[in-house]
Amino acid sequence: MELTAFEWVLLAGAACLIGFAKTGVGGVAGVAVAAFATVLPAKESTAAILVLLIVGDVLAVALYRKHADWRLLARLLPAVVPGLVLGAWFVHVVDETVMRRSIAVILLVMVALQLWSSRRRREAATAAERAPENRPAWRRRLEAAGIGTVAGFATMTANAAGPVMTLYLLLSGRTVMQLLGTGAWYFLLVNVAKVPFSAGLRLFSTDALLMDLLLVPALLAGAAAGSLVARRISLRLFGDVTLVLTSVAAILLLV
């Protein structure tokens, strides 16, 4: 794999953003996905970035494992499986342009949903009305099933489930640390589950794996910076940053 100096710098920056996303502000991972898809063929880029995502997931779990909400994970994880299967089929049958644009549309829809939901939450008269856990159990299960399936599809096609899940977790009323802990375990389990699908689609290559190895130091630097930021950022600011970066990532994928 022959890359220019500029492309190496771009990929190193993307790897740094992945580390930052895994331990800090999750929305920046979407920008990294777009950067990899710019330098590499779109389908091959999904497997190349997957390896780095798993490395970042391991770091995130090591930092935030005690803050996970396992009850929420139990609602989300089963619904991921049909999304992964559908996503693998989608990657197999469509071209790269269609795949990138489809994911961009998903990201923008999630941003619109978050803006709408935030407005509804501000209009709620009491804290009880705002708390998602006070909604009927069937509704919470239905929402988790829908989000899980969409996230499974998005992560299998373009590693773009980060914004989807972050927005959902923000709506669930968790703290920043609970959001990070739950997200860390969720993405580690889901990304490991994606490996057989990507291998079956022949998306991995020796050159890409060697490239990933060279990019790990940049990822570690980003992870260190992200862990410092995560402990000092407010939930509102966390949400605002996620919305902005998700929108930027979607626009980059559409271009």
TrEMBL record:
Keyword Isomerase: no
Residues annotated as transmembrane: 47-65, 72-92, 98-116, 176-197, 209-229, 235-254
Localization per record: Cell membrane
A single GO cellular-component term on record: plasma membrane
Keywords of the record: Cell membrane, Membrane, Transmembrane, Transmembrane helix, Transport
Keyword Cell membrane: yes
Pfam families: TauE (PF01925)
Membrane topology category: Multi-pass membrane protein
PANTHER family: MEMBRANE TRANSPORTER PROTEIN YDHB-RELATED, TRANSMEMBRANE PROTEIN YFCA
Protein family according to the UniProt entry: Belongs to the 4-toluene sulfonate uptake permease (TSUP) (TC 2.A.102) family.
Name of the protein in question: Probable membrane transporter protein
Organism whose genome encodes this protein: Catenuloplanes indicus
